[in-house]
Amino acid sequence: MRDRQNVGIGVGVVVLRGDSVLLVRRLHHGCGSWATPGGYLERGESFEACARREVREETGLTLTDARPIAVTNDIHPDGKHNVTVWLTGGAEGVARLAAPTEIDRVAWFDRRRLPANLYLSTLNFVEGRSSPPDAAQALGLQIEPASE
After folding, report:
1. Is 43 helix (H, G, I), strand (E, B) or coil?
2. Is 19 a member of any domain?
3. Adjacent-strand bridge partners of 38
4. Rounded-to-integer distance, Cα 102 and Cα 31, Å
5. Left, alpha or beta for 38 (phi > 0: left; psi -120 to 50: alpha)?
6. What is the spatial distance between Cα 122 and Cα 119, in angstroms, rounded to a whole number?
7. Can you give the pLDDT of all 148 residues of the chain as single tens digits?
8. pTM for the full predicted model
9. Cα 11–Cα 90–Cα 48 angle in degrees, nearest 5
10. Where is 53: in which H helix or E strand?
11. What is the CATH number for 52?
C-alpha cells in the first residue's frame, strides 16, 4: 500500500479509436468505477513509456502516437492523493481483459456517452478539473446525460 503522506504520480491514457474511447472497470480503489487505462509511473520511466506499459498490461493493446495533453490533481475522499499526467493516442490490436486482478471489464464507449460512475481522476479530467481545463472537451469526451 502506498504511503498516504506522499503524493503518487500516475499516468492516465485516453485511448481513442474512431468515435470511441477505451475504459476499464476497476476492482480495488474505486471498485466498480470506470477509468481510462493507467497506473503509477515507475522510477526512470517516461510518461510515454508508462502509458504504453499500462495500456499493454491492462488491455493487451499496443499504444500508438502517445502524447501528453493535461494534468489533474486528484485528492480522493479517503485521503489518497495522486497527480495524474494525461496522454492520448491510438491503439493496435484487440482489447481484452489482461489484468484480471486489477480490473474486471474492458470496453469501448462512445466519446459523447461515457458512464456516470467514473473513477475520480478520470472524472476530474472529463469535467475539466485539469490543466489545461479544456483537454477532454477537445477530444469530445462527455458523460452520458442522465435519463429522465
Report:
1. coil
2. yes
3. 12
4. 9
5. left
6. 5
7. 445 578 999 999 999 999 999 999 999 999 999 999 999 999 999 999 999 999 999 999 999 999 999 999 999 999 999 999 999 999 999 999 999 999 999 999 999 999 999 999 999 999 999 999 999 999 999 998 765 5
8. 0.94
9. 35
10. helix 47-59
11. 3.90.79.10
As to burial, measured by CB atoms within 10 angstroms (0-12 exposed, 13-18 middle, 19+ buried), residue 109 is middle
Write the single-letter amino acid at 136: A
H or E element that contains 103: strand 103-110
The residue type found at 89 is G
Q: Which of 123, 18, 114, 105 is nearest to 58 (CA)?
A: 105
| Strand, coil or helix: 21 | strand
User: Is residue 55 one of the residues assigned to a domain?
Assistant: yes
Question: Which 3 state secondary structure label does DSSP give 107?
Answer: strand
Within-domain flag for 130? yes
Q: How many residues does the chain have?
A: 148
Counting the structural domains of the chain, the total is 1
Amino acid at 92: E
Q: Which helix (H) or strand (E) holds 24?
A: strand 20-26
Q: Is residue 1 part of a domain?
A: no
| Joined grid coordinates for residue 55 | 495500456
At 85, list the grid cell: 499526467
Which residues constitute the domain of residue 121? Answer: 8-138
DSSP tally for the chain: helices H, then strands E: 3, 7
